[in-house]
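Could you show me some protein's one-letter sequence and the numbers that encode its backbone in two labelled lines?

___
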Amino acid sequence: MTLVMGILNVTPDSFSDGGAYLDTEVAIAHARAMLAAGATIIDVGGESTRPGSSRVGLEDELARVVPIVAALAADGVTVSVDTMRAKVASAAIDSGARIINDVSGGLADPDMLGVVAQSSADFVLMHWRDHSERFQATADYDDVVADVLGELLAQRDRAVEAGLAPERIILDPGLGFSKNWDHNWTLLRHLHRFEGHGHRVLVGASRKAFLGELLGGREPLGRDGATAAVSFWAAQHGVWAVRTHDVTGQADAIAVARRLHREAPLPDGAHSW
């Protein structure tokens, strides 16, 4: 079954909902609403990774993230933390986070893999080449699917060498990160290539610019329908989870995919739950 990971950005500058959940109580209430709508995991992030964004200070990131993680974990919520910093990961794990979602795949902070390996947390390892202010300059591939998968698996090997068991590693092709619009669509057409390596796969397409381009330049809040179509596609391919701002729409799309799967064979290259 494909799960829904609800995005909780506690940042002033995220591209879609920056500033909406800076207040801790408002953020926690939004997390609970996403859970009620069908989210299984809440992904808390204190640093924007939108194109062109600058890095936030360590203390600011900790102050934004840790109280929310602690409150949600105390309620038994499965919490993921979206961070590239080992110190934030460590504090979040100590506060009850069960997943560390590192968009750099362990490349931004040399201590990250060791910190996660010493814990029981799972690790989302995303394909990444550079920080947000520079990553579009690195969107150059001979074969985007083969190159992204090869780089992901190389970083997977480093994570295993650091002590992470393969079953704790989740792969994310990194839509929008060092990718142009065509690269994103090509990766989605070949999701089956990311399955079969002994790892769960996460897809994060929510409200991203390549969907806006498809829809004639539509703004982020108008991209939820297109995001749901991607979630339907991901569910058909047996993806472990989709990361989204719009929980209800994605949960509905996944429910339709599951219902159709009961009576119809999957297309070539897709995988069952």
